[in-house]
Amino acid sequence: MKPTRTSLARKLTRRMIRVQLITLALFFGLGVFPTVVAPVVDFLGDAQPLDPRATMVFAHSLVDVEDKQINFVATPELEAVRRDYPSMWLYVRNQSGASATLGEVPPMYRQIEDELWLLESVEVRTTDPSYGSLLVRTEQSPVGTVRVMTGGGPTVGVAGIIKRVSGILALAIVFVLGLASAITIPRIVRREMRGLSAVADQAKLIDINARGTRLSTDGLPDEVQPLVKAVNDGLARLDDSYAKRERFLADSAHELRTPIAILQTRIEMAEPFPEQAQLLVDAARLASLAGQLLDLQRMDLGDSHFEPLELGDMAGNVVGDLAPLAIAAGYELSLNAPDDPVMVDGDSSSLSRALTNVIQNAIAYGGKKGEITVDVGRDGTISVSDDGPGIPISERDRVFEPFYRVKPAAHGAGLGLNLVEAIVRRHHGHITIADAPSGGACIIISLPVLRQAAKKSEPVPAL
């Protein structure tokens, strides 16, 4: 089952937005509506003031003024209001005293017709339904500013309006704040988590070849710093354990060199016997493994000396040293190198031991017959081919694992190729396995070429 991935930033953003929305809902539900809206609605009760739409419609129907008479036309809007409210009446007056009347003005309100211009805005609600409510408003019309007085027309429920307006306002506030939160909160969260991103980038640089790296706690929240400190403590313990292991391997390899050298000498000095050649091969491989362990330890500690190295000369020295061993084991050992020098930047002793190990593998597992060929390419490659059974394609990636063998009950690539790969990798190269032309194994070491030097004075002879 695929593990579920959870983003802390998204989780914090969703929770913060949810908390804000719930807080706003509680604020309006338990604060604004009970303490502000409800008392206002209760105070107004069932009040239904006149709708100012009637005064506006009448003012827009005015067309001109003749002496003391204001003329108007029956616009569709005015007709629609009169049709819905047959008892509606309207009276209009301008500053010069010109007026117009539509419908029958109640006697009580006729008393204020002459003084209407003095009233800018009035609203009257009476207890006598025969008079009805009164609304006076100042309107702008085609004949100028006028005062319009009306009654018996459409009304509006103030309590209902307040309820609707307050509800719409609450929803608008919640929507605007929710949208603002959705935009700003993720940015705030990302900004506050920049310290975590920086620590993650530092963690990506942690490598076994760059020990001593520690994660910075600068800019981290207090809640995260204990975790980073625990990781740093764990890295320190790992570095200490790795250093102890390195010292153990280096000391072991160093201690093994003397008994291996004594063993080689005794085998060489002994009277000839059937297994002498094979024992010499095995002892040489042991000596090479011990040397490679020391080389890796030197590289890890920075004690190796990298300098321009000519691959043809290095390969020639290794082939020359191993030629007697290969001949004694039943092989022909030859070297093919270009006339032009192939220069790489490397540690001579460690690369020589790596090539030695590869050739010794060919001697040990090449079938005890045929030819072992070492080819140096102008592209910085060194290939070692044999006429043995080869390595199956399915096993070629695993033979570089430490102590892995192709056949558990038989000989195969083990710790040696693992050490070879480690040395080549520290030289920024890589090692691959292919098929030799004869069907055997072909081990190819590829190194970055430093430069092409002048032509060699003498070609490297084949052995």
From TrEMBL:
Bilayer topology term: Multi-pass membrane protein
UniProt-annotated location(s): Membrane
This enzyme's EC code(s): 2.7.13.3
Segments crossing the lipid bilayer: 21-41, 165-185
Enzymatic class: transferase
Catalytic activity: ATP + protein L-histidine = ADP + protein N-phospho-L-histidine
GO molecular function, one term: kinase activity
Keywords of the record: Kinase, Membrane, Phosphoprotein, Transferase, Transmembrane, Transmembrane helix, Two-component regulatory system
Family annotation (SMART domains): HATPase_c, HisKA
Domain of life: Bacteria
Main localization, broad class: membrane
Keyword Phosphoprotein recorded: yes
Entry keyword annotation includes Iron: no
Domain (Histidine kinase): residue spans on this chain: 251-451
Classification via PANTHER family: SENSOR HISTIDINE KINASE CUSS, SENSOR HISTIDINE KINASE YKOH
Protein name, as recorded: histidine kinase
Species in which this protein is naturally found: Devosia yakushimensis
